Amino acid sequence: MGKRVLIIGGAGFIGTNLSKHLIKSNMEVFCFDMSVPAKKVEGVRYICGDFFDDYSLMEALEGIDYVVHALSTVNPGNSNEKYLQGYERDFIQTTKLCKMIIDKKIRMIFLSSGGTVYGNQEIQPISEDALPRPINHYGNVKLCIENTIRTFNYQAHTKILIARISNPYGPGQDFNKGVGFIDAALKKTIKEEKIEIWGDGNNIRDYIYIDDVCRMLMVLFTYNGEFDTFNLSSNVGTSQRDIIEMLQEMGLKPQVEYLSARSVDAKKIILNNGRIMSVHKNALIPIRDGLREYYDWLLQKKI
Ligand SMILES: NC(=O)c1ccc[n+]([C@@H]2O[C@H](COP(=O)([O-])OP(=O)(O)OC[C@H]3O[C@@H](n4cnc5c(N)ncnc54)[C@H](O)[C@@H]3O)[C@@H](O)[C@H]2O)c1
């Protein structure tokens, strides 16, 4: 067997997809989550535990080579109400986790958010060196964690990596958790329900197919270069109106309801992916192909 990877929040959208890629690459995968999912990934070993319980966490880290930190208890939509939870719980516990993995000489990738860490920026696509200006507490909690990681990296000469993921979409996503416009648009179109768009639909995001995110993460497992922070993104901007048009081009009939714009949403976020693409050489899935692939998957699964 290959290296042992513990995915914290491993039963979620990104964790589940990443598990499948890791298993295919002969890694030994351990999923640490609150419960065992109804649909297990073959080959994955499931550990039920609470991230906020130090003892369970320490136990789960035993014998592990890599950790992927893939959970957040707040999302962009609710983080302004639940902001203290983000700082008191996610931030503090992740700081504890950093010390644990450093003491045990375990490598770690932290899943940050490219969509919200940067906020509104003039220069697009946004590179990793841009000054982050989060406009919601979810993004700022991520940034606090990132800065703590960079401080640990400097002090302990470690290389905990930070993956600033843009807007992933694909199998296993659930927009009810607070993010995922494409997921909502496809599922609501299939069910002939109205797609809610906050604002005029011209907000631009950088959508990336989940398999591309997983392949980029896989490359980071063996990365030994100079950088600690990476945008995982497509480098392409697409508005919500563009997505609606693409669904129409596919012969679908999306119905849209426009609601008042929200202060938690940045207008435009396109992330420069030059840094990750210098080590991840594969072509990315174009959005029209990704939409079709995810739509077919949803139909096949009767979701
Ligand atoms: N999905 C996105 O659009 C997106 C984009 C950028 C960054 N991210 C980040 O990537 C990470 C994973 O995102 P996701 O979409 O897979 O999230 P998700 O909500 O689908 O999965 C998170 C998992 O964490 C588990 N979890 C929650 N609290 C826990 C606890 N106390 N102990 C153990 N497990 C717990 C949940 O049960 C869930 O399975 C998060 O940190 C998120 O902020 C996600």
What features would you highlight for this structure?
Rossmann fold; seven-stranded parallel β-sheet; globular; binds nicotinamide-adenine-dinucleotide; NAD(P)-bd_dom_sf; alpha/beta; Epimerase_deHydtase; 303 residues; NAD-dependent epimerase/dehydratase family protein
Description:
It holds the Pfam family Epimerase. This is NAD-dependent epimerase/dehydratase family protein. Belongs to the NAD(P)-dependent epimerase/dehydratase family. InterPro entries: Epimerase_deHydtase (IPR001509), NAD(P)-bd_dom_sf (IPR036291). With 303 residues, the chain is of the alpha/beta class. It has a domain of 211 residues: 3-Layer(aba) Sandwich (Rossmann fold), CATH 3.40.50.720. It is built from 10 helices and 13 strands. It has a 7-stranded parallel sheet, with helices on both faces. Strands 7-10 form a two-stranded parallel sheet. Strand 4, helix 3 and strand 5 form a beta-alpha-beta unit. The protein binds nicotinamide-adenine-dinucleotide. Nicotinamide-adenine-dinucleotide (NAD) binds next to helix 1, strand 5 and strand 7. The site of nicotinamide-adenine-dinucleotide has 23 residues, from helix 1, strand 5 and strand 7.
